[in-house]
Each structure stands twice: as C-alpha cells, then as structure tokens.
Amino acid sequence: MKNKKFLTVKEVANFLGISRVAVFKKIKKGQIKAEKIGRNFAVPKKELGFILEESLKEEDKKLIDKAVRKTVKDYGETLKLLGSE
Q: How many CB atoms lie within 10 A of CB 53?
C-alpha cells in the first residue's frame, strides 16, 4: 500500500473492517469516491482520510481527541524536542 495511488475495493473493505459488498454500496451511494477502471473500481488513496473520518463514530472521535490532549500534556516538551531534531 506504500507507493500505490489507488486502493482496491478489497483493500478498503479490509481496512474498514466491512464487506466488499458494503464498500460497493457506499461507492454507489457516493459515500466513497471511486474511479471505474475497466470492470473494477479503484479508490484514490487520498480518499482514505475522508472515508476513515466518516466511519468513526462521534464517541470514537472524542476518545481520540482526549488521548491526543493527554499525550501532548504529558509529553509536550519531549515532542517539541523530537520535532526540532
């Protein structure tokens, strides 16, 4: 997945933990942007962030925000030092 510009429907399904059929339904509804290449769909890798953000529940987003704030509070100085190297 490193240098690829597109992801297959199977790769997106595995990443999101849903079935390929569910990915196809989301493509059809416009919830996932994909390009038709031949008989297959390809999802631009840059869409992964948007897809992931939509699939996160509000509760999950709050937990992530809380964890990030705690990490910055606890390790802020260390992070600044690491960032300046």
A: 9
Q: Tens-of-pLDDT digits for all 85 residues of the chain? A: 456 889 999 999 998 889 999 999 999 999 899 999 999 999 998 887 777 666 667 777 788 889 999 999 999 888 888 887 6
Sheet containing 6-8: order of strands: 6-8, 40-44, 35-37
CATH number of 6-83: 1.10.1660
Q: Where are the domains of the chain?
A: 6-83
Cross-strand partners of 40: 37
Q: 43 pairs with which residues across the strands?
A: 7
Q: Which pTM value belongs to this model?
A: 0.58
